[in-house]
Description:
393 residues; 16% strand; binds zinc ion; single chain; 15 helices; 50% helix; alpha+beta; three-stranded antiparallel sheet
Amino acid sequence: MLDANKLKADILDDMRVDLSEEFDRNFERKGFFSDKWKPRAHDYSRGSLLMVSGDMRKATQGEVSGNGVRFSSAMPYTNLHNEDGKITVTAKMKRYFWAKFMQTKDESWRRMALMKVGKVITMPERRFIGDGPDTASPFNIHDFCARERLYPGTVQSALRLLQQNGYMTLTDEQEHPARVMFCVSRDDLYKIRIQRDELDHFIRTLLRLYNGVFSSFRPIDDNRIAAAAGCDVHCVRETLKSLWRMHVIRYIPSSRSPMILFDTERLPTADLYIAPQTYRRRYDMMHERFSNMLRYAESDEECRSVAISRYFGEHDAAPCGVCDVCLDRKHRGKRGGELPEKILSLLKIRPMSVRELIDSVGGDARRAAEAVDKLISEGKISLGAQGKLAIIE
Ligand SMILES: [Zn+2]
């Protein structure tokens, strides 16, 4: 009798051995299965593909996990650019796809299982291993939000959380070099060099300094070209522009854009861990900010300008004299002089209860009460046995 679990375990183990070998061979042929590794997309990333060491190769391992084979790397430097994970179907893979179909009843597995051996496919779960650390790309938050239909505030918060947990760093705007690529054939370029003698020297310099400029955009340094061509930077830029107008080159002038740097290898979403403390810290910071704001809005004692200065860490600011709090204090000072006289003149007519007096004075009840207290303490009025205020004769 066939043991289904045993069979599944065997298939998965076969998969593991098979794919481990494949991965291992990737290091030898510097490619992902049938495809060569692409050169890095950006020249500003540190390190190089050649830094792939024996240690890293050993550190990449597969293990049967649940119903799949999981590949992971113990080394932080694993940098397999396996975006285009194309795989040639083998008999063993077909068995694996059948097993997946049996288990999930998902039609897509059945479709894959029915494929012929030798067919090249793109794996549905393409990223066995994510982008490595030290990869960098320009990141424009506005473009990103527009493309992904996300709210910038949410994206910013998410980036901050990821940054606080050491996954990535978003840099400020920085200078990116201009890029150039030829968009004519070598033969056509040769013709242009013959026809336009004045451009020949410049084009030759460009080709000498930047090889590969025929197949891809290359970052260029205007100053370096100027020095090599024996002209000034302005002339270099103008010549590049005219070559661009002639449709000889494609030219991306230098730009400023923030960069996103991956500090660790790119992890599957399920493996992303955000420490609860970081949420807590964000909460506390937000809480403090709100309570500061509330205190600012509610206070009618502290000058607005002083409050704002204190928020920004300046503790010896002088009252501005023109904000609502300062103006109110000035007016109160003026009226403060009138208030005791008003109370005394009212009590001269007849003794009154505190409530009655405050109502008769009108205006701010608290200030009237303060004025009454002050008059009592000065011995000018007193609170009698019937609870009525009267002038002390
Ligand atoms: Zn003020």
